[in-house]
Amino acid sequence: TFWFEGDGEWMLRKRASVEQNLRFDAATPMFEGYNGRAKWFGLAEFTPDRPILLLTDYPPDAGGGGAVILRSLLGSKELMNVIWLTLTAPNQPMENVITLQSGSAGRGPRSVGKDTTIYAGVLSREVLRIAKARNVAAIWVVMHNAAVPIAANMIRAGRFPVHLTVHDDPAFANALRSKRYVALVPWIESRFAYAIKRAKSTDVICSAM
Fold this sequence. Notes:
By secondary structure, this protein is α/β, with parallel strands linked by helices. 34% of the residues lie in helices and 13% in strands. The chain is built from eight helices and six strands; from the N terminus they run αβααββααβαβααβ. It has helices spanning 18-27, 65-73, 76-79, 112-116, 120-133, 147-157, 173-176, 185-198; strands at 52-56, 82-86, 97-99, 138-142, 162-166, 201-204. The chain has a six-stranded parallel beta sheet, covered by helices on one side. Strand 4 (138-142), helix 6 and strand 5 (162-166) form a beta-alpha-beta unit.
């Protein structure tokens, strides 16, 4: 059972196929104010003039599972309504994709550790500036790596409704497996807990989560 704010409850059977899960994720309302006459609207609520801002730690052309899921959900029509911000530059320039410059990617080699800690504040402010300049209707964050503390900052700022996607269980799994970043686990966990409790809406990829 998946719960969302607004009127109603949306359900998907536990043993649904991968294709059914993807269709469900792509079609389920995320925010209040959607067109109640068309419950399964996907991203049709957003427009090029009033887009949704998507923030990911990885670039759209990454090979990981999260990027693959997003690419399967966001076709060319949907991407017209999305401003995709990434903390890691894609292999080549992409339309409507912006690599954040106030963190490590704009200063030299990418560092997840620095972006998660010392640069999280300035990155959050850069996201807010872009969101305001592009007249976005909402912010959508995939809770992975340095995007976790940035999401917490977005929610604390309270300027835009924030939707969270959780692909990793736990969200600090990568740090937990890394000798370099394992010390960041308590910080990431606390920021994740803060954000997930206060987000406008959330989605996950399995019923256990």
